[in-house]
Each structure stands twice: as C-alpha cells, then as structure tokens.
Write a structure and sequence with these properties.
130 residues; mainly alpha
C-alpha cells in the first residue's frame, strides 16, 4: 500500500469513527436536552472532523516534502499542528459568537469527535497491533 493510500485510509477511518460517535451523541443530546443541542453538537463534531481532515492533509504533505523516505519535514508538521489549533479556536469562536450555538452542545460534539481517535484503532498512519 502506498503512503498516499495509507494516509487516506487512516484519515477516512478516523473521520468515520468521529462521525458515528457524533451522530450517536447528537441523537442522545437531542432526546435529553431538546432540539437546541442538535445543531450545536453537530457543529462541535464537525469542527474536529474537519480539523482531522486538514491535519491529515498537512501530514501527507509533510511526508511528501521529506528529504528521504524515513523522515518527515518537521517544520511543515509543526505548521500543520499550529494551523489546526488556530482553525479549531476560530471555528469555536464563530459557533459561539456569530451563530449563537449552545457552548455545552458544541463541547459535547467536540468531546464525542475527539473520542473517535480512540475508537478508530488508529493514530494517523500508525495502526495498533492486535
């Protein structure tokens, strides 16, 4: 399997796990708290899923830019991490400020999506052994 296929497979697996957990959490939050949490929870989950796709793309780009096949371009990798952090903070501010979504709902979606990393049994290209 080529590096591009491995990255694509890994990112897809993580995003699918995140999406599944966010949908389950959204359904539960909507039943317990009402429709006010519906969009907030989906938005919070979408922030993390989008940042996962973004960082996966930056990681693939950093790997391609590496000098040799065993190293990763560290500067590009750190740039991706910093940009991902800025992206998440900006989208959080947008959701709570401009869209006036429920902060508790957004955080619920964020937490559910973040748990997707654990349930996907993978960590950006390094698959855990069974």
């Amino acid at each position: 399997m080529s590096a591009n296929n491995a990255f694509s497979h890994t990112v897809r697996k993580v995003v699918l796990a995140q999406t599944g957990l966010v949908l389950i959490t959204t359904a539960a939050a909507t039943l317990l708290k009402g429709t006010e949490f519906l969009w907030s929870t989906l938005y919070g989950g979408a922030i993390i899923a989008f940042s996962t796709i973004f960082f996966g793309w930056k990681l693939m780009k950093a790997t391609r830019m590496a000098d040799n096949s065993h190293a990763v371009n560290t500067a590009e990798l750190f740039k991706g991490i910093i940009l991902r952090f800025i992206l998440v903070v900006a989208l959080l501010a947008l959701g709570m400020g401009w869209f006036k979504l429920s902060p508790a709902g957004i955080l619920t979606g964020l937490i559910a999506a973040q748990l997707g990393f654990w349930f996907s049994k993978t960590s950006y290209g390094i698959t855990r052994r069974k």
